[in-house]
Amino acid sequence: MASVFSAVLWHGRHYLAEGWRRYGVVPMCSAALGCVFFLLPGRTGQLVGLAMLSLWVMWLLPVRVRLAAVCAPVVLMAGFLVFSKPVHDRFETSWAEARAYAQGDASPTSIGFRLEAWRSALISIQENPVVGTGAGSWGRQYDAVQSAAGRPNATPTDGNPHQEFLLWGVELGLGGMVLLAGILGSIFQLSLRMDVGSQRATQSTLLATVIACLFNCALYDALIGDYLCVTLALCLCSGLKPDAEYEEQSEAAIQHPNGAHS
Q1: Both ends of the chain: CA-CA distance in Å?
Q2: I need a surface site. Which of 90, 144, 211, 262 has the fewest CB within 10 A?
């Protein structure tokens, strides 16, 4: 949330911060990203923050050398791993948990559960690829896969597979995954009609949403889904507003051709 806030504020600074308020944009963006990389422990938030900075670097470069921006995430990540203890510790823990899961360690770790949930989701999608197993069925499906694998879950889960696309795939089938991708793709298409600032704010929020959905059920889980959906809606409303104003002026010109400029 802090990473998205910093991106929207920066790219929309020309119409969000006027007058004396524009002097607060850089400190607020710096404070938000500073919290993400140096205080908060959330790995997904750190990945989103890294993506927001990488997009900013790409848009900052001239078009002819933007291909070089693919190096930005690597360089930025290397820097944060060296200088930010929270980033270093969280990613070191993630690597250790993933390695332990690959070696058959069944202890309940954050990454271990994610990988097992993803595996269970893929099995469920493979068994019910067309229509899925119905809305709200993830917990039941996860418990069934665990039981079939000889690992009955002592406490049946009502959670989610920590991956939005897989959740839609389990409950709605492959069509659900296509539907989610289509919704996100339509937002990108709409952003192409916006002015530069609104377009970059919308595309930054959209990329953050996609990244969050790859590692969490961001649109379904907790309050982050509310935040992302409302932020995307506000970006769309703000960015598409000039189109609406143009249509109103065109309609007024048609109805009152002699007074179009009054």
Answers
A1: 44
A2: 262
155-183 pLDDT per residue, tens: 556 678 999 999 999 999 999 999 999 99
Q: What one-letter code names the amino acid at 26? A: V
Q: Of 228, 230, 254, nearest to 1 (Cα)?
A: 228
Angle at 250 between CA 247 and CA 253, to 5 degrees: 150
Residues 72, 79: contact at Cβ < 8 Å? no
For helices 25-38 and 85-102, the axis angle rounded to 10 degrees is 40
What are 8-57's pLDDT values in tens digits? 999 998 878 778 888 899 999 999 999 998 888 788 888 999 999 989 98
Which tokens is 88 given?
């270093």
Q: Specify whether the CB–CB gap between 20 and 183 falls below 8 A.
A: no
Place of tokens 């993933």: 98
Interior CA angle at 177 toward 158 and 237, to 5°?
Answer: 95
Helix (H) or strand (E) holding 8: helix 2-11
